[in-house]
């Protein structure tokens, strides 16, 4: 039996892969919503709430990180192959405002058999408020057939 390549597996199991991340417990508990998933990419959104602010009245960095990290997780797992984060670097460029809808866009820059690299941008409207560089470890396990 021929083993599927990343692109073939993504297209064949895209709905199942989307469903896995659509139901991710931590993201769901925060109100993070997966909008789309592509080959090595994803988009996620979060409508911020009063309890997500810091002592300055702006969105807490941990909330912004969680949204970016979720988009990263969906993108690196978009081929149905189990991936885990190895490292991230986040740059906070502007404060997120309470009540805003934040949008994270993750894009794969390069991958090989074991590792993959991603750039994630977080927007509030049209304003870039944070960016993340992330590296994933690609395990031998697949969570789709």
Automatic annotation (TrEMBL):
One of its GO terms (molecular function) is acyl-CoA hydrolase activity. InterPro entries: Acyl-CoA_thioesterase_PaaI, HotDog_dom_sf, PAAI_dom, Thioestr_dom. The keyword Repeat does not apply. The keyword Signal does not apply. It holds the Pfam family 4HBT. Residues 56-127 form the Thioesterase domain. Keywords: Hydrolase. Gene3D superfamilies: Hotdog Thioesterase. This is Acyl-CoA thioesterase. It comes from Falsibacillus pallidus. The lineage of its organism: Bacteria, Bacillati, Bacillota, Bacilli, Bacillales.
């Amino acid at each position: 039996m021929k083993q599927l390549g990343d692109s073939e597996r993504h297209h064949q199991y895209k709905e199942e892969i989307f469903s896995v991340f659509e139901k991710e417990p931590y993201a769901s508990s925060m109100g993070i919503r997966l909008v789309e998933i592509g080959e090595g990419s994803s988009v996620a959104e979060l409508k911020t709430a009063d309890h997500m602010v810091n002592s300055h009245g702006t969105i807490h960095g941990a909330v912004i990180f969680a949204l970016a990290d979720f988009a990263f997780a969906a993108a690196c797992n978009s081929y149905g192959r189990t991936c885990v984060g190895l490292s991230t670097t986040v740059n906070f460029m502007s404060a997120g405002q309470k009540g805003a809808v934040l949008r994270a866009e993750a894009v794969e820059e390069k991958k090989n058999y074991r590792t993959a690299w991603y750039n994630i941008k977080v927007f509030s409207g049209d304003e870039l408020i944070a960016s993340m560089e992330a590296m994933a470890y690609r395990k031998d396990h697949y969570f789709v057939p």
